[in-house]
Amino acid sequence: MVYPIVIIPIIVGCVAQLIKFLLFVIRHKKIKLRFFFTSGHMPSAHAAFVVSLVTLIAFFDGILSTTFTVSFAFAYIVIHDALQIRTNIGYNGKVINKLIREVSGIKKENYPILRERVGHRPIEVLAGTVLGFALTMFLIILLENL
After folding, report:
1. Number of domains, the chain
2. pLDDT computed for residue 9 by the predictor
3. How far is it, in rounded angstroms, from Cα 56 to Cα 10?
């Protein structure tokens, strides 16, 4: 039963990214392909993907398996990165952009504008987590009934 463990998280991640794209289109009232590849925002595709993987391994191998333990640790690292590390990178970008705007005597054109929104808010990760679990369970049930 290897194929669902490979395919379902990819489907879940793509669905999360598609939802994010549609929310961007609705919010900005225009369609830009780059919206599909953006990081951060609602829902977290990273969280959806790793929670899908953890859910599948729990379902097929059990929560006492080594693979579940490894996948859980992997999910923790990815979600921690999305919530903490990448959020801090965005904050640093915001501060650096402000400094470049306010400091006189420097050539502003020599400094690229840094992204200020790289990580996720907790609600975005929660939405990705719920989406990842729910869609994975739906797809497991769907595949078992085929």
Report:
1. 1
2. 96
3. 12
1 pLDDT exceeds 70?
no
108: left (phi over 0), alpha (psi -120 to 50) or beta: alpha
What would the two tokens of residue 136 be? Answer: 């994975």
Cβ atoms of 12 and 136 closer than 8 Å: yes
Check: CB of residue 77 under 8 Å from CB of residue 50.
no
* pLDDT at site 81: 87
Note the pTM of the prediction, 2 decimals.
0.83
| 95: its two tokens | 């501060």
Give burial (CB, 10 Å; 0-12/13-18/19+) of 103.
Answer: exposed
Domain span at residue 59? 2-144
The contacts of residue 78 (CB under 8 Å, 6+ apart) are 46, 47, 49, 50
Q: How far is it, in rounded angstroms, from Cα 23 to Cα 25?
A: 5
